[in-house]
Every structure is written in structure tokens, then in C-alpha cells.
Amino acid sequence: MASAEQLKALIKSHLEGDDQRFFSVAMQVAAHEAKLGHGKLAEELRALIDEAKRRRGAGQPVPISRPRGELANLLAVSYPKLRLGEMILDDKLAQQIQRVIREQRHAARILEHGLSPRRKLLLVGPPGTGKTMTASVLAGELGIPLFQIRLDGLITKYLGETAAKLRQVFEATDHTRGVYFFDEFDAIGSQRGLANDVGELRRVLNSFLQMIEQDRSHSLIVAATNHAEILDRALFRRFDDVLHYDLPDELQISVLLKTRLSRFVDKDVSWDRLAKEAVGLNYAEVSRAADEVLKAALIDGRKWLNDADIRLMLVERQNVAQKLKENI
Question: Would the CA dihedral through 202, 205, 209, 214 be positive or negative?
């Protein structure tokens, strides 16, 4: 049976018209029943919740669920519609993400047997390789909001204040189910004892370790970093899965270019040759080059692109990327 606090939360959210909160608490009740071994009841509750969401237009943004008060300075909310099929990934990474989605969709069945679905993920890899897009895809596939943690609002210079704000974020994961995304996670997750480490950040990291360990919500907690080598080792075992992202190979670059530009090119374009020109660029840079060549054609009033048009933009992106590396 639902606890007294859950019953009160259900009634209060109904009175306030807060559908997101109502469904979140109802899902908690279903998960609790599954843990008690009441699998049939849990499935019935989930079916009723899904039907209620469908009738009310599930997945549509509802203003009442937007962060309020101080949380508005800590969380930026969006409602992505992206799907996994829109990403270009190697087979292993695609399987890892698909597994997370499948386990989330069958969470009640998993919880019924005393197991936990994957929901705490660490994404590591170079910039522009799909980490942020993965957070959006998870939210889109599961029909839940994406909450991006604002690091500028989270990290302050005042002793103890950052940890207190972090606690607010973790409390929100329990109140509103969603994907909670910590981008540039190394800002708070770097190794304790680094030369430039300060006492406040050590305390923040310790607080994060404690909070993620204790978290029992039904939200997904996703952290992304470009610098896995400086993360504290204690962090890795707190996550259910670590997903590794790499720069695209020639085949993936070819598929990406073809996907973005095939409707606008003539028959003489060789995607394989163009992909060789783009080796070393990340997905974001290749996509940017495709956008640039399309814009140039639109400005010139041309309906078709040729091999030289695309190669020119790829070489330009390579030069920009090289200059950025030299200035780092």
C-alpha cells in the first residue's frame, strides 16, 4: 500500500493540478508495490498511469513542471523529441544506450525481482561526439523532461552553499522524474588532492558521492565529461554504466554527410573520398560543415551541391579545428 506521505502527495498534486508530480508519485507507488512482490498490482498501476498520460497528451510540456524558485537558477528544462535512430553510433555504444532505454521501460518488472534498472550513467569522450545528444535521446525515448544542471548557478564561492544547492537538485530527482544532466562534470568531479584543488570543491565532490549513492529516485542521472582522466576514481563505481564516445571513423563520417546532404548533391559525389578529408573531426564539426555548405548554396541561389563544395567546407573546418588545438 502507498505510504501516508505518498497519499498526501497524490492528493496535494491533484488539488494543485500538478500532473507531472502526480504521475511521479504514482510511479513511486507502483515501484514500491513491485519491490514488495506485488507484480500484478504494479503492472496494473503502471498501465493506468500510462493510459492517464495518453489521455492527457503524454509527453507534452506542462508549465507546472518547470523548475520554480531557486531551482529555476539550477535547472534548465526542455522536452526533447530525439530518438536513438537519429544518432550515428558504433554498435557497442548503441547497444548500451538501447539497454538503458529497455530497462527503464520495464523498470517495474526488474524491481519486482529485487533488481535495479540502469539509471546512473557516466558519459566520457572528446567534445562533439554525442554525449549531450545522448541525454536528449534518453529523455525523448522515455517521454520525460530533460533537466540540465546549470553549473554557473550550482558552484558558488560561499562555503557550504554549493553542496546545499546540489542537495536541492537531488531532491528534485525524487519529486519530478526526468533525465538530470551534469555536463562538464569534471568541474565538480575532479580528483581530490589535485594541485589546484580547493577545500570547497572537495566538499562538493564528497557531497555528490554521498548523494548519488543514497539516491533512490526513478530519474536518470547522467554526467558527461571530456576529461575522464581527471575524475576522482571513487566516482566510477557510483555509476551503473560508463559509456565511451570516440571521434567518428570514415564510415560514420560518410553516413553523416550522406544523411545531411544527399538530397542536395549530384551523382558524382564520392562520400568515401569526402570522409577521408574529414577524419579527425568530431560529429559536431562535420555537421557544422554540412550546414555551412548548404547555407552557401542557398545564398548563391544554387539548388545542387558538388564534390568541391563539400570538400571546401570540410577543409575549412579542419583548419579551424587545428588552430583551436594550437591555442589550447
Answer: positive
